[in-house]
Every structure is written in structure tokens, then in C-alpha cells.
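Example record

Each entry pairs one chain with its bound ligand, zinc ion.
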Amino acid sequence: MDTRPCPLCSRPRTPADAAGLAWSSQHEADGSITFICPTCTRAQLWRIEAMLAVASPTAPLAPLPLRPAA
Ligand SMILES: [Zn+2]
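C-alpha cells for the complex follow.
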């Protein structure tokens, strides 16, 4: 079972987390799946909805710039 930590905040992913649905999954170009913890999922939801990559398992993204004010 994949219990790698969240790539965004390094929160450990326990077997209980892996059995639940709280963590979101991101399918990588190489076919692997990166799991994002619930906290980061909520924080990155706009990226997910925009079909943008949220995180990379090998190269964590730099801190995101704030969205420009409307
Ligand atoms: Zn996280």
C-alpha cells in the first residue's frame, strides 16, 4: 500500500488514510499516483479544478504566488 507522505506538507500518510477517501490522488505522467492530504487538497482545490498539477513527487513546487486580485 502506498503510504508516501504528502508532497506539499510532508504529512505522513497512514494505512488508515490510505484506506479512506480523504486524500486526493494526482495521476502523474509516468503512471504513478501522488496522494495529497486533505488540508493541501482544500488549499489546492482551485489548481485541481483548473486541471493543473498540484505537486510533483520528485520536485516539490515552489511556494505558489498569490492569485492576482480581481
Ligand atoms: Zn499536505
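The chain has a mean pLDDT of 81.
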